[in-house]
Amino acid sequence: xxxxxxxxxNDLATDQRVHKxxxxxxxxxxxxxxxxxQLKGSLAVNDRVYATHRMNxxxxxxxxxxLEYTFKLFFYLLFKRPHLLVSNDLDTLLPNYLISxxxxxxxxxxxxxxxxxxxxxxxxxxxxxxxxxxxxxxxxKLKTIITVNDSIAQVYExxxxxxxxxIKNVPARKNFTSVSLQKTKExxxxxxxxxxxxxxxxxxxxxxxxxxAIEAMLxxxxxxxxxxxxxxxxxELKLKVLLLNLETKVFFIKKIPxxxxxxxxxxxxxxxxxxxxxxxxxxxxLPNKLFDYFHSGIAVLVTPLIEIKRIMEEFNSGxxxxxxxxxxxxxxxxxxxxxxxxxxxxxxxAKLAAEKYCWENEEKKLIEIYRPFAK
Length: 375
Fold this sequence. Notes:
Layout: E1 3-7, H1 16-27, E2 31-38, E3 51-56, H2 62-78, E4 84-88, H3 93-103, E5 106-111, H4 119-122, H5 125-138, E6 144-147, H6 150-160, E7 165-166, H7 173-177, E8 195-201, H8 210-216, E9 223-229, H9 234-243, E10 250-253, H10 258-267, E11 270-273, H11 280-283, H12 288-296, E12 299-302, H13 306-314, E13 318-320, H14 326-338, H15 340-356, H16 359-374
Parallel strand pairs: 1-2, 1-4, 2-3, 4-5, 5-6, 6-7, 8-9, 8-11, 9-10, 11-12, 12-13
Helix pairs in contact: 1-16, 2-3, 8-14, 12-15
């Protein structure tokens, strides 16, 4: 049996894209090992048909963290005997590339974003130049590259002359049909007489509109706002809620397993995705949460970023904001919640979007990408 080692820099627990990749490889006959890191408070990784390994790191951020991770991953891979390496994002690429050359094994690179232009790097020129230098060295040498949407594929093709495969990060229909009996608002600890607006995900970070969405709740009546998941700004958001006296209107649900999170998503009325168009990476982004909202059959309120706008014009499943002014966001939410007939139409269109944008369709393309490596 051939062995495939998949590398990520996260803690494995909530990365649905990587899990789906591992399952695809497993179903093609690979013995799969997923490698990541252990974090304080990491959720358990249970009931997976493939092996996992989490590395304990002394550093948790900054340059020493990346150096420690790179060295540990390199030496971990050095003493393995893989037939295929799968590197997820630029922060795992260097050790995978070096090992692929040393051991003469195939390497697939899956870039989930326009990495060198994330907000964390565009304001730090030295760090950005370092990552860009690494990318410019390795990227042109790669043979098989996957990314998450057409916009990112096109910009990389212009920069490096490489043709990328596009596999959208969408959920499987079966993950939603197999969810246990839907809990009521009362069972979830939510007010029964209020509409629900939700923001979910593992990337509740800076410039994603969460701050403005909280301020918007000052002007929204008859609804509560759920923030489900984790991210860099969650603690700051909790402080903002306290300062604005919004404890009865904004609720935080910590990072929980995907199936549990869906209990909250499916009971919501509006799902929001308000990433700001202030970095190339965000400009080209297509957030996973958008598809979770579609599959949950709820209306959406979104920023009209390139990829999102394209889908919203194809499936009219909600509203798009014109600015991040909290009063404008509040007006959109109030309008949506008051529009009963439109809400029915938006929710019906969300379900149509889910039929097209599902893993069952994307997996067919991924199987064709990995098929040659399984022979």
